[in-house]
Specification:
The structure holds two protein chains of two kinds. By secondary structure, chain A is mainly alpha-helical. Chain A contains five helices and two strands. The termini of chain B are far apart. Chain B is 73% helix and 2% strand. At the A-B interface, helix 2, helix 4 and helix 5 of A face helix 25, helix 28 and helix 29 of B.
């Protein structure tokens, strides 16, 4: 799509949308958002870029092949499931640690569900982006 | 080591749960009958494995054969020791599959492949009937455990379903044990290597059907139907196979047909519930396993050393292969039923049994005598024609086979001899408990070589006399039989006709169903859905309590009207871009509805998915060529499509409404709401469900997304064939 306006706007949009997608991913556990939604937003950002600049540029922006991204995501989700098994708990049980916890405040909660959610995010981004790039390149 | 325990009447059991909700337990039970079979399977299996290691020593796929033999042995052992009907069926099918691989071992040979497929289809088809029969039987008896079915209090033979169950189970047993008219696969399966034939087609697998009959006789036997079907099918198989066996010039085929004959004999005797008949069947089973396996291995040796199995070309081998010759003679004499071999005892018992069953019709006695006379003739042929008279017509110079290849048959032949001289060796510990299981009552067995001068002995003398005549006149017999046989249809022809009809039907349905047109597929799927779900609703009647429905939310109402308009646009529009955008409107409308009712996460997801969907669909559709002329269904098609889609819409709407009107069980929702923050440290329940409570579901969904993406990429990378040719 050879549109100067779209191309210019897309450069601003992409960065903002990617940031927003990370924000959605991060806050998902407590407020609307999460890995799936975040991944979709990120994929939308990449597609906007791809529509404006073409699939080659999109590949360069991604750096990693989308298929690899999908596999990394799946692997992270599985690893998040296996980690609790090492401590003798069931597959996919949440393991948590609390950074800076006080008596009244639980502090920053980090756990395996976050790893799992990031995995979901990567699978969705990689999957949608991969489909789009291939369609652009092959059709 | 547990043989004395089992033979004294107690059964060893091993039980573990498998699918408890369906009543399927992995239960195994070793009683007298199972013990006899297990011993046959493992001992003969061992000998065959030793033999084939040497037989195939220079074959590149020797390892594969050994592995398959072991797998087969395992399946057979499972089959005979299974106590649950479903477990029995699973092992039954495993033997079918492993035998398919074994018969087709020489997979570069088209004939071997064809025979393997035939054996698979015939026995597998019977297996399906068997499964149905076993399930019905279990329903009738109220238990899936064989040991309980056999002792069932319910009079199974008086149930209304009894004939159906019996015929289904017999279909399974008859196909497996090569009974007329399903016998044709067994001689064809001789495409298998000799050790495989020795193991599968003489000693074990083909006796699986017999095993089933023996096992179920206490439960299903004793009725007129059982008696007439088994004795008549057995007798027909027996006579037919013995006549065809005489026709053969290939020794291995000759043996195969005598195996069919032996199986017919066993079936015939199992038809009766007399003690002597059961005893005859059990003893003959052992006798046959000993001599037939030995003979197959001997023929393997002959084939290996001379390169031929044709009777006219074989002769005078005793000078070059003396050990094989002695083994062949010993095994063949047992087959002919000469004293003092076990075969003699088996034959006397058979005559005694036949006389006992056939008080009025002498057909059974005549069939038994005739078949045994043929066996005498064939046994003499094998020994004298191959080893003593005539001379070899072959380029190869035969010499004796290595120890590993004669020790197995030798041991089997020796077993036939020693158990013949000292029958008490097996009478008490093997035959008695097995017979007791067949009869389901403890029975006392005493075997002896000499019965005194009685009717069976007279019949034996008659048998030998006829056998010698058959042997001397073999060539004339063969010419006569060939002349008759040419006029008769063979099982092979029926098989081929059925198979061709099946292929044609499959091709017909494939062409009708798999047109490659997406709209055609959708029409079929939607019509089926409409007929099944909508039909059910029509039959059952729909009653919806509309009083619980809240008034329509004004905002939601507006959105719904928009969505309805958009869907009309999708259906009517001729422009793709317009259709896609209208589809987007519908999707966004759904997202809005979610938002209005407070499901923010779902709304965001729906909105994102919808956006990406429109973009991706636009990328694809806008680059496709214009609709080809035949894609449009025409005016009649339009109306048909409209009817189907409106119908599906109404049905889905009704079902959804019905679901929404039922009072849902909120306990799970409450559990999530209460524990989301305390146990999973998250305030957003939707996300907590996704990544913690129901993370396994999500993992599955993510895997689906990944697979779908990979599939899309892979499909798009495939170039059409024509392009390849052009470039």
């Amino acid at each position: 799509m050879n549109s100067v306006i779209f191309s210019t706007v897309s450069r601003f949009l992409v960065g903002l949308m990617l940031l927003f997608s990370l924000f959605l991913l991060w806050r998902g556990h407590n407020e609307p958002g999460g890995g799936f939604i975040g991944g979709l937003v990120a994929a939308a950002a990449l597609i906007v870029h791809g529509l404006a600049e073409g699939p080659q540029v999109m590949r360069r922006l991604l750096r990693i092949d989308p298929r690899t991204l999908v596999l990394i995501g799946l692997l992270m989700a599985v690893v998040a499931g296996i980690l609790p098994m090492l401590t003798g708990q069931a597959f996919l049980t949440g393991l948590w640690m609390f950074i800076g916890a006080t008596a009244t405040d639980q502090g920053l909660a980090l756990g395996t569900p976050l790893i799992f959610d990031i995995g979901v995010y990567l699978v969705v981004v990689g999957g949608v982006a991969g489909m789009f790039i291939t369609m652009e390149e092959e059709l | 080591m547990q043989i004395p325990v089992v033979s004294s009447g107690t059964a060893l059991q091993f039980v573990t749960e498998w699918v408890p909700r369906l009543g399927v337990t992995l239960s195994f039970r070793l009683d007298g009958l199972a013990l006899m079979y297990s011993l046959l399977i493992s001992v003969i299996g061992l000998l065959v494995v030793v033999y084939s290691a040497s037989y195939f020593s220079s074959h590149p796929d020797s390892g594969r054969l050994q592995c398959l033999l072991m797998l087969f042995m395992l399946s057979m052992l499972g089959l005979v020791s299974a106590d649950n009907v479903i477990v029995l069926f699973v092992f039954w099918e495993l033997t079918t599959v492993t035998s398919f691989l074994l018969v087709g071992f020489d997979h570069k040979n088209e004939n071997a492949r064809k025979s393997a497929l035939q054996a698979l289809l015939v026995t597998g088809g019977g297996g399906l009937a068997l499964l149905l029969g076993l399930i019905l039987l279990a329903q009738m008896a109220g238990t899936y455990q064989l040991s309980e079915i056999v002792q069932s209090e319910v009079a199974l033979t008086e149930q209304p379903m009894y004939p159906v169950v019996l015929l289904l189970i017999l279909l399974g047993a008859f196909t497996k044990s090569a009974q007329f008219p399903f016998h044709f696969w067994l001689p064809n399966a001789m495409a298998a290597p000799s050790p495989v034939s020795a193991y599968l087609h003489s000693a074990t697998m083909v006796k699986a059907g017999i095993y089933l009959l023996m096992r179920l006789q206490p439960a299903l036997g004793g009725s007129d139907l059982w008696f007439y079907v088994l004795t008549s099918v057995g007798a027909i198989t027996l006579v037919w196979a013995s006549l065809v066996a005489l026709r053969q010039t290939d020794v291995k085929l000759m043996l195969a047909w005598t195996t069919v004959m032996a199986l017919g004999t066993l079936t015939m005797f199992l038809g009766s519930d007399l003690r002597i008949a059961a005893l005859a069947a059990v003893t003959f089973l052992l006798v046959h396993a000993f001599y037939k396996c030995a003979l197959f291995l001997v023929i393997g040796n002959v084939d290996k050393r001379t390169g031929t199995r044709e009777l006219p070309r074989l002769g005078g081998l005793f000078r070059t292969m003396p050990v094989t010759g002695v083994v062949a003679a010993a095994a063949a004499f047992s087959m002919a039923g000469f004293p003092p071999f076990l075969g003699f005892i088996g034959k006397e018992l058979k005559y005694e049994g036949a006389l006992a069953i056939a008080e009025e019709p002498w057909i059974i006695v005549i069939a038994a005598v005739a078949a045994n006379a043929m066996m005498v003739g064939i046994a003499l042929t094998i020994v004298i024609k191959i080893f003593f008279s005539g001379r070899l017509n072959s380029e190869k110079k035969p010499f004796e086979v290595p120890v590993a290849m004669w020790i197995g048959p030798l041991l089997l032949a020796v077993a036939g001899l020693t158990t013949g001289i000292f029958p008490e060796l097996i009478a008490r510990h093997i035959i008695e408990p097995a017979t007791s299981n067949v009869l389901a009552t403890p029975t006392d067995v005493k075997l002896s070589l000499w019965h005194g001068v009685n009717v069976p002995l007279m019949l034996s003398v008659l048998t030998v006399a006829i056998g010698v005549v058959v042997f001397l006149r073999l060539d004339q017999c063969r010419t006569r039989l060939n002349a008759i046989a040419e006029k008769l249809p063979t099982g092979d022809q029926y098989y081929q006709t059925t198979l061709n009809a099946l292929y044609r039907a499959a091709a017909f349905f494939t062409q009708k169903m798999q047109t490659g047109s997406l709209s055609h597929y959708l029409t079929i799927v939607m019509t089926v859905f409409l007929l099944t779900v909508g039909g059910t609703l029509l039959v059952q009647g729909v009653s919806l309590d509309m009083s619980a429905v809240s008034p329509v939310h004004p905002l939601a109402g507006t959105v719904i009207v928009l969505m309805v308009l958009a869907s009309l646009v999708v259906a009517i529009s001729k422009s793709r871009l317009l259709s896609i955008c209208a589809l987007g409107v519908i999707g966004s409308g759904i997202a809005l509805l979610f938002l209005i009712f407070g499901a923010i996460d779902v709304a965001i997801t729906q909105l994102m998915v919808e956006t990406l969907f429109v973009v991706l669909i636009a990328v694809v559709l806008l680059r496709l060529p214009r609709f080809p002329g035949n894609a449009h269904p025409g005016k009649g098609g339009d109306i048909r499509d409209a009817v189907i889609s409106v119908g599906v819409g109404v049905v889905v709407g009704l079902v959804t409404l019905g679901v929404a009107l039922t009072q849902p069980d909120l306990s799970i929702t409450e559990y999530f709401a209460q524990n989301s923050l305390t146990k999973a440290y998250g305030a957003n329940i939707v996300n907590v469900i996704l990544v913690d409570f129901r993370a396994l579901d999500t993992l599955g969904e993510v895997a689906v997304v990944a697979t779908a993406a990979m599939a899309v990429v892979a499909l798009l990378k495939v170039k059409p064939r024509s392009e390849d040719n052009a470039s």
